[in-house]
Design a protein that fits this description.
This protein is α+β, with helices and mostly antiparallel strands. 20% of the residues lie in helices and 13% in strands.
Length: 187
Amino acid sequence: MLDALKGFGLTFRSQFRKVTTELYPEDTKVTAPRYHGRHQLNRYPDGLEKCIGCELCAWACPADAIYVEGADNTEQERYSPGERYGRIYQINYLRCIGCGLCIEACPTRALTMTNEYELADDSRQDLIFTKEQLVAPLTADMEAPPHPMRLGETDQDYYTLEYTLENTLGDPAEAQGSGPTSGEAHP
């Protein structure tokens, strides 16, 4: 009997508290910088894709949400600096658990997770994201693939970003961003 009165008391007290109203669709909250949201396939500064179609992300995914089919690059059609590229890349967000193991498995840092969290949809087919939806958009200084390698002669040059074409990207440190260059030690 005493437990029932405690329960009624809790209900009675909560009736006089201010109601918290979420204005979600109109007023979205800013996520933490390291929030794991929608995946993104990144590009090199000249526009070539970082994904080499190795399928390690698909092997690492515990929910079997990633499907990758690699293909060979040719000199006429080059999509990435390596021998291969991801011809078909799909992530099924009905299965994805957002664990980030695919990010850790990627040897070229091609796959990252953005802060975008609005992934709900009313169609199952729309929640299977294709490569075209996942790949990072081209910026003004990028060229749409396929095109020849512009930042070096080998895939190792791309990975370390030691070489750049003059008048294309400028300083290699700027092209790489704020991360350490090949001569600097990692913190």
